[in-house]
C-alpha cells in the first residue's frame, strides 16, 4: 500500500514535470507578436481610432496561440505571428490617418470660441 | 451444407471489412487532398491586395512594404507552380498583409500631406478669416 502511494506520488510528479516542460516550449516569433499586440492594446490612440483593425490583429494572434498549443506547427505559427505584427502596424497607421483627418476637419471648420 | 453456409458468412464478413477499410482509406485520401489543395483563393486575395496598393501609389509612398508584398507574391506563384501548396498559401497570406499595410501607409501619407497643406494655408496668412471677422466689430465699436 505504501509502495503504491509512493509510486503514485512519483507518477504525479513526473506528469507535472513533463507538462511543465511542454508548456515551456516557446516560439520566439509568437512571443514577439504577443508583445507587440499587448503594447498596442495599451495605446489609447490606437484603441480609440483603430479598434476594428486592432481586433483583427487580436484574432490572428489567438489563432496563432491556438495552433501553437495544439500542433506546434512552427512554419504556420511563425507566419501567423508575422501577420499579427503587420496587422498591429496597420492599426497604428490607421489611427494616425484618423488623427490627420481630424486635424483637417478642425482646421477647416470655424474654431470654437 | 453447414460448411457452405459458414463459408458464405465468412465471405460476407470479409466484404464488409473490405468496404470499411476502403471507406477509411478514401477518408484519409480526401482529408489529405483538402489539406494540400492549391491555395487559389489566398493567391487571388494577395493579388487584388497588391493591385489596390498600386492604385494608392504605395510603390512610391510605402516602398518597403510594397516590395515585400510583390516579392512574396512572386514567390507564392513559384511555390504554387512547384505544387508546394502550403508554402504558397503562407506566402500569399503574408503578401496580402504586406500589401494591406502598404496601402494603409500610402493612404495615411496622402492624408498627412493634405493636413500639412491645410495647416500651412491656415497659418501663413495668420488666420485671415479671424482678422476679417474682427474688423466689423472694431469698426462698429469706432462708430459707436
Count of individual helical segments of chain B: 6
The chain-level mean pLDDT of chain B equals 80
Gross geometry of chain B: rod-shaped
Q: What is the tally of beta strands of chain A?
A: 0
What can be said about the biggest beta sheet of chain B? none
Order of helices and strands of chain A: HHHHH
Offer a quick outline of the entry.
Chain A is mostly helical and 113 residues long.
Question: What do these coordinates show?
Answer:
The complex is a heterodimer of chains A (113) and B (144). The mean pLDDT of chain A is 89. In chain A, 32% of the residues are buried. Chain A is mostly helical and 113 residues long. Chain A is 87% helix and 0% strand. Chain B has two domains: 35 residues; 88 residues, Substrate Binding Domain Of Dnak, Chain:A, Domain 2 (Up-down Bundle). Chain B has six helices and no strands. In chain B, helix 2 packs antiparallel against helix 4, helix 2 runs parallel beside helix 5 and helix 4 runs antiparallel to helix 5. The radius of gyration of chain B is 34 Å and the shape is rod-shaped. The interface between A and B is medium-sized, with 21 and 21 residues.
Indicate the topology.
The complex is a heterodimer of chains A (113) and B (144).
Chain A: H1 2-23, H2 28-41, H3 44-49, H4 51-71, H5 74-108
Chain B: H1 2-35, H2 40-55, H3 58-61, H4 63-81, H5 85-123, H6 128-143
Helix pairs in contact in B: 2-4, 2-5, 4-5
Short descriptors:
heterodimer; A: 113 residues; 5 helices; B: 144 residues; mainly alpha; Substrate Binding Domain Of Dnak, Chain:A, Domain 2; 2 domains; 89% helix; 0% strand; rod-shaped; disordered N terminus; disordered C terminus
